[in-house]
Design goal:
The complex is a heterodimer. Chain A has ten helices and no strands. By secondary structure, chain B is an all-alpha fold. Helices cover 80% and strands 0% of the residues of chain B. The longest helix of chain B has 33 residues. Chains A and B meet through helix 8, helix 9 and helix 10 of A and helix 6 and helix 7 of B.
């Protein structure tokens, strides 16, 4: 970006990068906290869908225990998916996104901060609520710790991968359904390893393989996803 | 000099004029191969000892599956070239490759289901390969839906190029995950008898794969050509080309 150096001299880059990250992080967190009601929506959705399962399938603890790991994971994934549409929407509408992309800091950092806030406000609460819903789904005792750990690692990847879809569809008026359509196939690996880690623990096997794989998905997503997100945001803003 | 052909590809006009002569050849050769190999495979290849005649749908199933997979890479590579070199033509190739690939993937799933009924006793099994191909179909449908959603063509091209590149990174991960998921959940009760295939059955299969690749090339080129005409409709050479035809 040679044109940027004309207007500003970033100087030694590392403190500026950290500063940019914190500034975006603080701003987005503040906005999230001021819209407290919206924070609860994914959690209520999670609770509602889990309530539907005994009503629709069977209230017998045996059946529920069999379904619990997969069901909890699938619904946590859907709750994340539904929260994604709002990730860049308001910033796109009021022009903040354009300013963020124009700033001399690399958009990788800004995007990273935004997705991190999304994870803090959806992935982490979903993870913390999951054990409670596990009780309602009669999840066997051995499953709680792996459920927490796998969701904690997995929702990070879900936020990062989903943000690619959100960035691609932010300029479309009716992006919601399309967003789910393009993101869900990409969620398959995370779901497979997340749910099977919990199931393995219930059946008395070691589950550290699954956690390690989820961790490596997260590492890969941290490296690669912000590049795709930034590219997609530039595409959405430029036209 | 060595890269001249690559730079020439930047011109849709050059591409259109160059491929005009190829089209009838590609179509007739591919149809000739597909029809004659069908006769060979259906009438003269030996019957399978276990599966009887039902195995013969393999001659449709295997080529469609292979070309469906290859089409995704054609689409993603074209998208990547479009992003990096901003080449108009490669964006067009990417756009038209998606529906062709989706149709091939759906065909592969359908022929697989038809083959599954006599051999496995059921149309659908949650087997690793079937599941992966189903997800491949979803990836195609996502790219098509994204392409349709934008009214601005340039944005549509960039968006679907990014999505197909992301999908390319994900395909090996999805395949490996599904494989792992399958070995974990189900014992290997269903094994394809493909460990060794008799050469009398193999040669028509290889010929069929070549025929399908040629047919895919024809379909891709002719769709790209009509896309070129659509997008360049305002240029002089397109009007002349259309007048000449009429």
């Amino acid at each position: 970006m040679s044109s940027n150096s004309r207007y500003s001299n970033p100087g030694p880059s590392s403190p500026r990068v950290a500063k940019a990250f914190w500034a975006t992080l603080k701003r987005d967190l503040k906005i999230a906290i001021r819209h407290r009601g919206e924070l609860a929506n994914p959690l209520i959705f999670f609770l509602l869908v889990i309530t539907m399962v005994p009503l629709g399938v069977s209230p017998s603890p045996k059946t529920l225990a069999l379904l619990a790991p997969g069901m909890l994971w699938v619904v946590a994934l859907l709750a994340t998916l539904l929260s994604l549409d709002a990730l860049f929407r308001s910033d796109f509408d009021d022009g903040t996104l354009e300013q963020l992309l124009l700033s001399p800091q690399s958009s990788y950092i800004n995007v990273m901060a935004k997705v991190f806030v999304h994870w803090l406000t959806t992935g982490v609460p979903l993870t913390l609520v999951a054990p409670l819903l596990g009780v309602m789904m009669s999840l066997p005792e051995a499953g709680y710790i792996p459920l927490l750990l796998s969701l904690l690692l997995g929702t990070g990847s879900l936020s990062l991968i989903g943000a690619i879809g959100a960035a691609l569809t932010v300029s479309l008026r009716k992006g919601g359904l399309l967003l789910s359509l393009i993101v869900m196939p990409l969620y398959v690996p995370v779901l497979i390893f997340g749910a099977s880690g919990v199931r393995a623990a219930i059946e008395g096997f070691a589950y550290n393989t699954q956690l390690a794989v989820l961790g490596s998905f997260l590492a890969l997503a941290i490296i690669a996803a912000p590049l795709a997100i930034a590219g997609a945001l530039k595409m959405s803003v430029n036209n | 000099m060595a890269w001249q052909w690559f730079h020439r590809l930047g011109s849709p006009k050059w591409f259109y004029e160059k491929t005009t002569a190829w089209m009838p050849w590609l179509l007739s050769i591919s149809l000739l191969i597909i029809i004659s190999v069908s006769i060979w495979a259906l009438g003269f290849a030996p019957m399978d000892a276990k599966q009887g005649n039902s195995y013969r749908i393999m001659y449709l199933h295997v080529p469609t599956s292979i070309v469906a997979m290859a089409a995704y890479y054609v689409m993603a590579i074209a998208g990547g070239i479009g992003i990096i070199w901003k080449m108009k033509l490669s964006n067009m190739v990417m756009k038209v490759a998606a529906p062709i690939g989706a149709v091939l993937t759906a065909l592969a799933l359908f022929t697989g289901a038809v083959w599954g009924k006599p051999t496995w006793g059921t149309y659908w099994v949650w087997d690793a390969r079937i599941t992966s191909v189903l997800i491949l179909l979803f990836l195609y449908l996502g790219v098509i839906a994204l392409q349709e959603a934008f009214s601005d063509q340039e944005m549509a091209d960039k968006a679907s190029a990014i999505l197909s590149l992301v999908g390319t990174v994900n395909i090996p991960i999805i395949y490996k995950s599904v494989d792992w998921w399958f070995t974990l959940h189900q014992p290997a009760s269903i094994k394809m008898t493909s460990s060794s295939i008799a050469s009398e059955m193999l040669y028509p299969l290889l010929a069929m794969i070549i025929g399908f690749y040629l047919f895919f090339t024809w379909a891709l080129l002719s769709a790209t050509r009509s896309e070129i005409l659509q997008r360049e409709i305002k240029t002089k050479w397109v009007k002349q080309a259309l007048l000449q035809k009429a």
